[in-house]
Amino acid sequence: MITIDLNLFATLSRHLAARESAFEIKENTSIKELIAIIGVSPDDVKLIFVNGKKEGLDYLIQDKDRVGLFPPVGGG
Amino acid sequence: MGAPGGPKSVETGLGEYEGLGGRAMTSAVVAKEVPPLCHPLGADNKLVISPGLLSGTAAAMSGRLSIGCKSPLTGGIKEANSGGQGAQMLARLGYAAVILEGKPSDDTLYKIRIDSAGVRIEPDNSLKMLGNYDLVAKMNAAYGSKVCCISIGPAGEMKMGAASIAVTDMEQRPTRHAGRGGVGAVMGSKGVKVIVVDDAGCKMRKPKDPDKFKAANKEFVAGLKKHPVSGQGLPAFGTNVLTNVLSEAGGYPTRNFSSGKFEGAAKISGETQAELEVSRGGVATHGCHTGCVIQCSGIFNDKDGKYLTKQPEYETVWAHGGNCGIDDLDAIAMMDRLDDDFGLDTIEMGATIGVAMEAGLAKFGDAQAAINLIKEVGKGTPLGRILGNGAAVTGRVFGVERVPVVKGQSMPAYDPRTVQGIGVTYATTTMGADHTAGYAVATNILGVGGAVNPLKPEGQIELSRNLQIATAAIDATGMCLFIAFPVLDQPETFQSLLDLLNSFYGLSLTGDDVTALGKSILKNERTFNQHAGFTSEHDRLPAFFMKEKLPPHNITFSVSDKELDEVFNW
Hints:
The complex is a heterodimer.
Chain A: E1 2-8, E2 19-25, H1 31-37, E3 47-50, E4 53-54, E5 66-70
Chain B: H1 22-33, E1 47-51, E2 65-70, E3 77-82, H2 86-92, E4 98-100, E5 110-115, E6 118-123, H3 132-143, E7 148-151, H4 154-157, E8 165-167, E9 176-178, H5 183-189, E10 192-197, H6 210-226, H7 228-237, H8 242-248, H9 270-279, E11 283-286, E12 297-301, E13 307-310, H10 314-320, H11 329-342, H12 346-358, H13 367-379, H14 382-387, H15 390-398, E14 405-406, E15 409-410, H16 420-428, H17 441-444, H18 460-477, H19 484-489, H20 491-505, H21 511-531, H22 544-547, H23 561-564
Parallel strand pairs in B: 5-10
Antiparallel strand pairs in B: 1-2, 1-4, 2-3, 5-6, 7-8, 7-10, 8-9, 11-12, 12-13, 14-15
Helix pairs in contact in B: 1-18, 1-21, 6-20, 10-12, 11-13, 12-15, 16-18, 18-21
């Protein structure tokens, strides 16, 4: 198992606490699999940030990664 | 305002300005009629106030007002854009533009009333140095509570570079501002404190083809509701939903642009703000003008549940928050209220306080000290006069190197090193650093209108160019810029916008015509700026963005000067 800092923003925080700073998952889990584990529809996730970088659904999560997931949002 | 014997009003036909509105109108009039080398606060400058082409109609989102002039902050052309009730009312009264010209011969302060009986200009020195809130209360007592006030606070009267023009919202509060570039100082230089607009007895403007117009509006609204940003994200959390996004992306300018990630982001985020507002009996979903269906605003009450200010926007929360190391929403809301009351641009003031903190006038994170600095501006003390003239002046007076401005105007809430597309817009727009001039954040960060890597220079020039052209055209329609989220992603929503214009005016515009309109506006603005002394060397970011690496990505701005010079080479 590896431990990640998982952050769900805006409407996604309904699915889990907004922040799980020590969320445990199996090694070699992809973002897509993570989303399934926490019970979010992939259609609801628009922005994926890992350690400040934009990543895709296929990104394989590493130990100690900070993962931030957002639904579609905008402003300005 | 400088007519012999006192100010006079004249009504004329549109002539060569026929078919223009909003930013297309303000920039055309300024480019043609204002000498580019005039003093911005002199008699030769003009303040042009223009509703958009669709303002005053039944079209959703059509209530944006453009205010143009030569800017006392940048020395170039300016179009500042505001919500509130002004655009709908002026358009229903039948005015395509209100232009303030000349300058009174003494320091008499005037109010202007515009209603179906015409225009009256009346001296009223009892209004001197009133804050916008007291001023509006006084106007409501005199003229009723269905008017719109377009006004300046003490900052405008003191002709400060950060002075805004306030426009009242649906609740008669001066919360919507043409904020940027010191437009309030130009209004102050004309001796005008307030324009009271009353559209009583006026009907909505009638389209040439009512059936097609109605159908187009229905399709347009459906498009806004269908898109997740305009239909869900903005209504629920407002613009401040971006705090977490930009901090997560490492593009959130923190403590005067010294870091890209703010540890206090969650405490001042849109999510937290919406929850706080609702818990205090405020509102988290609210429109700024009649006809708004996105409803990105809200009402912010204080700890006792009493109205304090409207929901502070993302830019404001950033400027007075993370940019100053402050993570207290109540303090930020208080600064928003003070800015609105004194008539100040929240972006310029927050950036200025960030520079002042860097200079040692206050400590980063000290909210009370930041509030006190804004109060200095309202009082017009010598320190307040410096701060009220913006980040560039403040940086120069206090010897600060890290001053985040372009053409003398401070940058908003996106660091150009980690959102390189917006850096291109900051550098090259005619307006001085301005995110709304070509919102590359949408494509760099938010995944709207495609995807361009925010950390690399590739693709940013074309992105910024296309967005600057499209934005100029949208700013001519009177439409809120947030329609761009669905319009960029949904071709049918773009088509319905065209259908609205075509059925209203009996035209047959295509996408190419809209692009041509955007280009013509930018050309007017570029030409004015060139004659005002701007060269390609002014289309640059401050040197520190090319030298200081921004954590956490530890990169600099890497779009070359040569590339920047290609933005307007279409």
